[in-house]
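Hi all, a correction to my earlier message: I attached the wrong file for Magnesium transporter. Here's the right sequence:
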Amino acid sequence: GRRLLSFEEGDGPADRRVLHRLTYRDVRQLCETFYPNSRPGLQVRNGAVVAIMGQFRACVLPDRLLVVLPQGADGVLEQLERKLYAPWTAEREAGQAEMPFELRAIETIISLATSRMGKLVDDLYAEVGDLIKAVGGKGALSAEVHDRLRALKDRAGPLGTRLRSYQEALQDSLEDDEDLALMSLTKIQANPLRYRLPLSLEALEDHEDAELLLEAYLQEFGTSYNRLEILQSKLENAESLVLMKLDVARNKLLTASTIFALVSMCTGFGSFFGSIMGMNLPNTHEDDYNWFKGVAAASVLFSAGVGAITYGYFAFKGVLVS
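and the right structure:
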């Protein structure tokens, strides 16, 4: 669990809480091979902070940063070094107070995670925009559009879960005053007696830098999460539009099928009259051309009338759709 404090064995009330030391398990958590699904968070240890932010995992010490990257991610090192030292160089040139190394290191790890998640959301936004244009067009929807829609929804769900886990990790740290105070490894190294547990009220309140840092990145994660929620809403609307278009297309097919069946029925009436009058039965009208014209006209008019009445009835009842 995330419990960072234990009790030394002693004589009851005189016991003092102490921070857990950095253990082999903490170090193994930095390697994705051993813990591929480690929960994001900042775990404060005695003289160190274990920072786990997705694939960015590091152990922060007062004067150094130990980073474990997955295989093939060496390109991140240059980006990490730039983010770690660029603000420090700017502060020195401007004559401003330098942020402690451990806070700069923690900021670097969280910043890399926020940048990566923001880029994933941006890429998803671009793909969803193209998909919405394809769905909103007047052409027929292809199977490729349906597959893209399903794939984007499958990507958006886990991405939202990851963003939410980052938010919860930072929120947990912000709600723990002891964690925030004990992240100041440089101050602890300079004055260890002041940070003996349980912490005094003065030490507990001395964590403004760490608090402001985590709050800033908590808002960034929140912004990305809100954008993703809007994106998921757009995907839901696009899916509804796709289903509506499919319903309209199905209704048009049913209308066309009904019209063809109606035409076939009318033709059947004409064929019926023709077969009756054309039988080889003796009657007195075989050689009367006027009878032929009358029967032919009656057959056509009757078939057309039945078809028109049937079509009008269906249209009046709203069965046929355009």
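Sorry for the mix-up. The beta strands are 5-7, 17-19, 41-45, 48-53, 56-60, 65-68.
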